[in-house]
Amino acid sequence: MASVFVTGATGYIGSVVCEKLIAAGHEVIGLARSDAAAEKLRALGVTAHRGDITDPASLAAGARPADGTAYIAAGWGPEFGARDRAAVETLIGALAGTDKPLVYTSGAWVMGNTNRLAGEMWPCKPPAMVAWRLPVEKLVLDSIERKVCGVVIRPVMVYGRGGGLAAKFARGEMPMIGDGSNHWSFVHVDDLGELYVKALENARQGTLYIGQDGKQITTAEFARTFGIQEFMPLEEARAQFGPLADCLVLDQKIGSTRAFRELGWRPSKPSVLRELAPK
């Protein structure tokens, strides 16, 4: 693959994906909404394509000439549902008949609570905040019918390089919520970036992958590691954070070997507790 068009290229995950793609020998074209974003992309060695995911013409113009597309634009709330669906429909229309890869970023919260180790076949029962993602995932996976190599990646909680929600909790910038009994699953942003590269290069059409490092810990263990002694009651958290609170108390024991088996992906970075431990 010679070139990859990336949306969300200046973001936490997107910028690392761009870095990994360049290291793998690909030319990267990033969607830039502003002069500042374009300058940031150029500093990363990424060619800036001016436009916006809400502008179908600019989105299609960026994707059509590229050999592959990675959609990594961020958004959790229900208000992002219509935006993402419209953008994905535009991209599928632009790529129809080409068999080019379109990798869409979803998230493991769509899986809801799990009462055992859950993988890609888990029957999803998402909280309201992210329920809109499932129909968009289906749109991408069904794009095989239009000769697009649609692939979905569901990252779990991402950490590393000082970013992500896990770091905010570890630094005490956000309160721990609930009673500490629920599990979180994690993936390092560098490992996740490698997964995108492998998916763009080798994934089969209509495939879903979960980005996770195979480890799950309770929020109580996470809190103990960082000296956090208090948890905010869920009802109080709902009043302060809205629907996000229900996502943060999901009990998610998530693990899968699909990306390992099919793509040869091997997470190798330090665990979240080691990575975020006070130096």
**Could you say which structural class the secondary elements and strand pairing correspond to?**
alpha/beta
Question: Biggest sheet, open or closed, and with what strands and sense?
Answer: 7 strands, parallel
CATH architecture of the domain at 3-158 and 189-212: 3-Layer(aba) Sandwich
Number of strands: 12
Number of helices: 12
CATH homolog superfamily of the domain at 3-158 and 189-212: NAD(P)-binding Rossmann-like Domain
Question: TL;DR of this structure?
Answer:
The chain has 279 residues and is α/β, with parallel strands linked by helices. It has helices spanning 12-23, 35-43, 56-63, 80-95, 133-141, 165-170, 189-202, 219-225, 234-241, 244-248, 258-263, 272-276; strands spanning 3-7, 27-32, 47-50, 68-71, 101-105, 149-155, 157-159, 176-177, 183-188, 207-211, 216-218, 231-232. α1 (12-23) packs across α7 (189-202) and α4 runs parallel beside α5 (133-141).
Q: Overview of this structure, please?
A:
The chain has 279 residues and is an alpha/beta fold. The chain has a domain at 3-158 and 189-212: NAD(P)-binding Rossmann-like Domain (Rossmann fold). It is built from twelve helices and twelve strands. It has helices at 12-23, 35-43, 56-63, 80-95, 133-141, 165-170, 189-202, 219-225, 234-241, 244-248, 258-263, 272-276; strands spanning 3-7, 27-32, 47-50, 68-71, 101-105, 149-155, 157-159, 176-177, 183-188, 207-211, 216-218, 231-232. Strands 3-2-1-4-5-6-10 form a seven-stranded parallel β-sheet, sandwiched between helices. The radius of gyration is 18 Å and the shape is globular. The model has no long low-confidence stretch (mean pLDDT 96).
